[in-house]
Amino acid sequence: MDHKFTGRKQSKTIFQNVPNNAKYVELVHSGEDYFARLKQIIDKAEKEIHLQTYIFENDETGNRIATCLKEAAQRKVKVYVLLDAYGSAALPDSFAQDLAQHGILLRFFSPLFSLNNFYIGRRMHHKIVVVDEKIALIGGINIADKYHGNATTEPWLDYAVQLNCPAAENLQKLCSDYFFKKGSSKKIPPVLHSAGNALVGILQNDWLRQKTEVCDAYTNALIHAEKEIVIVGSYFLPGSRIAKALKEACKRGLKTTVILAGISDVPLVRRATEHLYFSFLNHHMQIYEWNKSVVHGKAAVVDNKWSTVGSFNLNSLSCYGSIEMNVEIHSAEFAETLRAELDKVIRESNEITGKTLRQRAGLINRMANWVSYQMVRTTMLFLTFLPHLRFLKNYRL
Q1: Is residue 140 in some structural domain?
Q2: Which residue ranges does UniProt annotate as crossing the membrane (predicted)?
Q3: Number of domains forming the structure of the chain
């Protein structure tokens, strides 16, 4: 029997009582770690594969995974691939046709242009593969060379979680609903699945469909934090709810650390984030910049017992525009593993202090950061407003 979780008043999470298998929750790193696991999972599929990602590129890594998917289809495995029409817009038609000719069912989420809509704000931002309702990878890693790296180039800094537990069954149903457009606007509380000593939940964020689970989980975790918060964030521009929760945590004396991009694939956003550095430092946050590669990770650890990894960025676009999915893990052991990884990243990063910021924050640089911040916030407002217009139009019809 399911029963309500009463650990905190705000939570509507439900525990699902299932047999404890073993501990089947593993942290996965970008690079060969992720793609070797992905290949192995696909190669072992017997019945059904769902792969959903924002970016699938026609490069060495993309072709490697495409080959695995085609081989699975030849074994009579049902293969469903859902790609975002904007994120994967560069994928050649011939690439998609080749997948289809090998029996793979491929669909692009929300073409950028349709007969009656200009539709850019609401994107399918998942990065998921789930196989046979048994095993899954969920995180922030797209299918492209830059997430793999090579002998001379570091992969983009990112993470995923491998699930070998009943949460995979839940995840496969969610992926199937998205692929076959069975999504419902009905708000159903998330389930926490037993996985050995851990509890694992799949969180969705799709504001237009009344799904705000990732944003709510972040906010609740920050509000109820007692000791420490560590966040690695790409495109880090938290909205008012999460920004307030972070600042309140700092006021309560919690050690709050953020790992941000020293190198970014979107320099305008990096400058916009730097505009907030003085405010962060004034609230006694610790800031570290990773400069070995692009920061693309979206993960957090709170009090060494609650963790989350996924596609959700701490900004308004993820909160109110894109369709996101994270995994939350209630486990001291997993939190210790993730925290050890983030400690390693911190040791290899540059700390940003008031002194170092003043040294590089000349008048021109500060004005450029301010202009970038205004431009990015305005753009995000515009991109999140467009899907709302479409939603209201459909509602009126």
Answers
A1: yes
A2: none
A3: 1
